[in-house]
């Protein structure tokens, strides 16, 4: 997870495209998500109208984000929660560690959260002597493997059953059979239950926060989110500042599209709303709830042409339809956010220069825009980031020179005619059957044959067409 | 002689597959039009636009507007270049009121070939007895930006072709302009996925309406039993 220069992205993608196990895993998972999404949206009376409604809600919310966040803070505090504002990842991490230290915490259970991936919280916790344990099955698998997530909602979708069995076997200290899935999940459940009961704190993300009641909403399928936020005495939620729904009516629209777009479920198995700590007469629940509002570069996008990207609800639909993601795999993106949304978000949050390849990791096919529940125009933003790379001179000079020269040629038809004629002459030794034969290692297109120029151009034939 | 239309042949067709341009001219003439080829034309500017070289794209957009704005209609054998003129010219020229209006006027009379034949010319090819069965690849811009999915299929069907639909006919072929050179590993893997779907239906002729997709798919097609051809060439041959 250290960026995505052209070299980094291409070598990651080259590994991914030649790894048939990985390709099979990605193809199966994304195809399942794709079909389920289409079916789940078809069940709605008017999915398109609902998408328009969510878009309107998200864009109106962002237009007055500060107000909604202040309402959220006020309401959450009224419900007994502590609210913190973290300008960047470092601040957020420090707040978590301070709270953990106040409680002498040694063990933290976590439910799946992209925001904590973004700020590398696990790493910092370990360094501070607090053991983080991921309790979402997929997150736990990649934690055991020491890998970052490869998909926003299916963090371990790149792992095969056999690889998972191997990781679990190592953890329990005896060999587990890869074909017995019920047994593997039962082992995971047994091990994780121990952690839930022993944990001092529970850390979650937030799928959204509802301002009018100061509630944090979590969407999970495994029930681990509920245990993380109720079994330990302290619950810490890390929430990106853009994940605000002003009212529960807004949240209802959001939730009716989130699971459908993500996994194709009408709703996920568990939708939990956490409003402050346990009341005195509650039989269980945390004694303290801490909510960290994470900015980390988000507010800088407000009022710019990239504000739209903050409308994202992190459903992962754009990954599942993206042909580039399907070939390159999530890890090539060099940060926790992969696929088309990652290609826009990562350069904005983590730096364009260190993620220079991401705006180019797209054929601009538009499938992401078509699938996005909030209709975020990702292709437009990818183009804009490419433009920024040109104006900030991140694009290396040979390419700048080549593009500028080519454009100059295209602007002068006589030069264009002269140079294409020249190329036609010099390609002769290399042109065979309408393609250029050059050694593969010299071919910029790899194994793909490059076309030769036709013997005569159209403009040369134009007068003779019958 | 009928109405006069301008052909914007596109730089790929001009230099690499002139037979597509020839077929386009013949089809337009068959549909009753007089075709003009303004010889000053070069490139619509899309490669530069897509690479973030906006200034260069703007210069080429202005140039194309000057060359084509006096015609009553402009036809292109490419969904992608049509999209550039229709969607992006007005967009990139927005800061200049005069140019913006000229761009919008040109956009309104610029058509992709199958779109022009179906909606402007109302041309119906006669069904040929020996027409081949084909599978059609929806190119991304033509499908998602111009919403032209039925037009090429309608022409192929009317000409007597049996259409055999592949799975995900609208999956990207992997071209994406300079993407195919910047990211050849991913690009080629995408093309292989595309061709795998095309090769698993009962036909050996893969048809598309975009020269870019055609060039890309041809680059790896020797691994299959398929032949890839441009819509214009297929239609022109069977309606002779």
Element-by-element helix/strand order of chain B? EHHEHHEHHEHEHHEHHEHEH
Number of strands of chain B: 8
Please state the structural category of chain A. Answer: alpha/beta
User: Could you name the ranges of chain B where pLDDT drops below 50 across 5 or more consecutive residues?
Assistant: none
Question: Which descriptor suits the 3D outline of chain A?
Answer: globular
Q: What radius of gyration of chain A results from the CA coordinates?
A: 25 Å
In CATH, what is the class of the largest domain in chain A?
A: Alpha Beta
Largest sheet entry of chain A: 6 strands, parallel
Overall outline of chain B? globular
The total count of strands of chain A amounts to: 13
What portion of residues of chain B belong to β-strands?
5-15%
Ends apart, CA distance between termini of chain A: 60 Å
Write down the overall mean pLDDT of chain B.
Answer: 97
Query: What is the correct CATH architecture of the largest domain in chain A?
Result: 3-Layer(aba) Sandwich
Strand order of the largest sheet of chain A: 1-10-7-4-2-3
Q: From the helix content, strand content and strand pairing of chain B, which structural class follows? A: alpha/beta
Draw up the topology in text:
The complex is a heterodimer of chains A (466) and B (240).
Chain A: H1 6-17, H2 20-42, H3 47-63, H4 65-78, E1 82-86, H5 89-102, E2 107-110, H6 114-118, H7 121-127, E3 131-134, H8 137-145, H9 161-172, H10 181-198, E4 201-204, E5 208-210, E6 215-220, H11 224-230, E7 234-240, E8 244-245, H12 248-262, E9 270-274, E10 288-294, H13 317-321, H14 323-328, H15 339-350, H16 367-371, H17 378-391, H18 397-410, H19 413-426, E11 431-432, E12 435-436, E13 450-451, H20 458-461
Helix pairs in contact in A: 2-12, 3-12, 9-10, 15-17
Chain B: E1 4-7, H1 11-15, H2 18-30, E2 34-36, H3 46-50, H4 54-68, E3 74-76, H5 79-92, H6 97-108, E4 110-112, H7 113-120, E5 133-137, H8 140-145, H9 150-158, E6 162-163, H10 179-182, H11 184-199, E7 205-208, H12 211-218, E8 227-230, H13 231-238
Parallel strand pairs in B: 1-2, 1-3, 3-4, 5-6, 5-7, 7-8
């Amino acid at each position: 997870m250290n960026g995505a220069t052209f070299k980094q992205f291409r070598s990651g993608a080259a590994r991914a495209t030649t790894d048939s196990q990985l390709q099979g895993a990605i193809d199966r998972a994304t195809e399942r998500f794709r079909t389920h999404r289409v079916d789940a949206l078809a069940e709605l009376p008017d999915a398109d109208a609902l998408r328009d409604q969510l878009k309107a809600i998200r864009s109106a919310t962002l237009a007055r984000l500060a107000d909604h966040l202040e309402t959220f803070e006020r309401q959450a505090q009224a419900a007994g929660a502590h609210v913190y504002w973290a300008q960047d990842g470092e601040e957020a991490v420090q707040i978590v560690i301070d709270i953990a230290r106040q409680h002498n915490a040694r063990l933290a259970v976590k439910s799946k959260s992209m925001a904590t991936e973004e700020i590398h919280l696990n790493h910092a916790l370990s360094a501070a002597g607090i053991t983080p344990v991921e309790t979402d099955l997929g997150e736990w698998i990649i934690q055991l493997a020491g890998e970052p997530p490869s998909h926003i909602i299916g963090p371990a979708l790149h792992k095969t059953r056999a690889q998972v069995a191997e990781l679990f076997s190592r953890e329990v200290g005896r060999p587990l059979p890869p074909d017995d899935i019920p047994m593997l999940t039962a082992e995971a459940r047994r091990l994780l239950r121990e952690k839930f009961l022993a944990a001092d704190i529970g850390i979650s993300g937030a799928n959204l926060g509802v301002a009018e009641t100061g509630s944090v909403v979590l969407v999970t399928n495994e029930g681990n989110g509920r245990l993380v936020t109720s079994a330990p005495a302290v619950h810490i939620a890390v929430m990106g500042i853009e994940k605000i729904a002003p009212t529960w009516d807004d949240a209802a629209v959001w939730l009716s599209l989130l699971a459908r777009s993500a996994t194709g479920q009408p709703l996920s198995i568990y939708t939990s709303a956490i409003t402050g700590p346990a009341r005195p007469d509650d039989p269980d629940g945390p004694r303290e709830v801490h909510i960290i509002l994470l900015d980390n570069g988000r507010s800088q996008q407000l009022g710019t042409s990239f504000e739209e990207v903050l409308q994202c609800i992190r459903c992962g639909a754009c990954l599942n339809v993206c042909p580039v993601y399907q070939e390159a795999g999530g890890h090539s993106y060099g940060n926790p956010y992969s696929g088309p949304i990652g290609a826009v978000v990562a350069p904005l949050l983590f730096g364009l220069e260190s993620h220079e390849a991401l705006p180019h990791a797209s054929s601009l096919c538009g499938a992401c825009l078509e699938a996005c529940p909030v209709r975020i125009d990702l292709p437009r933003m990818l183009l804009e980031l490419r433009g920024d790379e040109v104006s900030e001179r991140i694009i290396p000079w040979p390419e700048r020179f080549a593009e500028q020269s080519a454009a100059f040629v295209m602007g002068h038809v006589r030069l264009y005619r002269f140079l294409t004629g020249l190329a036609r002459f010099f390609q002769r030794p290399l042109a065979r059957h309408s393609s250029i034969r050059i050694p593969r290692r010299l071919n910029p297109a790899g194994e793909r044959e490059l076309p030769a120029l036709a013997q005569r151009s159209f403009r040369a034939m134009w007068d003779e067409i019958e | 002689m009928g109405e006069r239309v301008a052909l914007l042949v596109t730089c790929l067709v001009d230099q690499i597959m002139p037979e597509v341009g020839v077929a386009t001219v013949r089809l337009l003439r068959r549909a009753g039009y007089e075709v003009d080829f303004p010889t000053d034309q070069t490139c619509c500017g899309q490669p530069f636009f897509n690479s973030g070289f906006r200034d260069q794209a703007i210069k080429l957009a202005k140039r194309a507007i000057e060359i084509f704005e006096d015609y009553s209609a402009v036809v292109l054998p490419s969904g992608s270049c049509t999209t550039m003129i229709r969607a992006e010219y007005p967009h990139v020229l927005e800061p200049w009121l005069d140019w913006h209006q000229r761009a919008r006027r040109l956009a309104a009379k610029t058509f992709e070939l199958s779109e022009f034949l179906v909606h402007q010319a109302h041309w119906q090819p006669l069904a040929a007895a020996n027409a081949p069965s084909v599978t059609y690849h929806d190119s991304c811009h033509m499908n998602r930006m111009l919403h032209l999915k039925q037009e090429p299929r309608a022409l192929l069907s009317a000409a007597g072709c049996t259409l055999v639909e592949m799975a995900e006919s609208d999956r990207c072929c992997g071209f994406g302009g300079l993407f195919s050179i910047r990211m050849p590993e991913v690009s080629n893997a995408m093309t292989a996925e595309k061709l795998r779907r095309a090769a698993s239906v009962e036909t050996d002729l893969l048809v598309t309406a975009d020269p870019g997709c055609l060039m890309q798919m041809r680059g790896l097609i020797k691994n299959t039993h398929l032949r890839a051809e441009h819509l214009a060439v297929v239609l022109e041959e069977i309606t002779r």
